[in-house]
């Protein structure tokens, strides 16, 4: 039997790995031993994280809901009521041959009337004599639709020309403002979450200052002493990130059905879209990093203040 091999000291890498595992397990144990304090800390962090995340996902859904409007380059040309179907069809062919036009769709008065009936306006239309709707040309611009809309207004057959460039520009400005607001809130509330972790870890350090002092006298490095507190902060962050996602998921489930019903009343199939698995994992990981940084800052400051000076 090789006694020398059995008594061979463990490698530095193995010791480093074992201490990381021990620090992680010990941090979980400290969380479980103080469930009420842990719940308060994690709850405050979760709300601080959920607010900017909720605003961000709301803006993403608003942008997706208005995506067809934002990306549309369509100009609606309502022809005069005395323009016959043959002339409307010929005009559509003429416009489609223009270099600044990508496509032209002709909707006849009959098609427009049928669409209104499908939207539940049949009773109102039944009281009208004949079909009051004009022919409609939906023109898709090849580039910027503003010059195209101006030129289409000069057509002798055109009655009303509509395009929503101004509305789209205002929507873009509101979305940019909302995104900037989400980033500002994320920064402020993220700082608040970091301070919450830092204060919690500071209290934990104060309760273990005698143990830390003994380790320092024995020559333990700052990294060795700091490691359990770093894992403690990371655990706070990961739990807070997971609870923040759970809160937003609950809000999504509560709002999804009434919002879908409202969208259906406008003839839209829009549904709320939450975080995909990759985004959810990134949020939880980022929250863990935030907790790690808060614990590292507080622990590093404490160790610099208490490290015995060499004589």
UniProtKB/TrEMBL annotation:
Q: Name one Pfam family in it.
A: FtsX
The way it spans or sits in the membrane comes to:
Multi-pass membrane protein
Cite the InterPro entries for this sequence: ABC3_permease_C (IPR003838), FtsX (IPR004513), FtsX_ECD (IPR040690), FtsX_proteobact-type (IPR047590)
Q: FtsX extracellular domain: which residues?
A: 74-157
Keyword check for Disulfide bond, yes or no: no
Family, according to the entry, reads as follows: Belongs to the ABC-4 integral membrane protein family. FtsX subfamily.
How the protein assembles, per its UniProt entry? Forms a membrane-associated complex with FtsE.
NCBIfam families, per the entry: FtsX_Gneg
Name of the protein in question: Cell division protein FtsX
According to its UniProt entry, this protein's organism is: Lysobacter yangpyeongensis
| Classification of source organism | Bacteria, Pseudomonadati, Pseudomonadota, Gammaproteobacteria, Lysobacterales
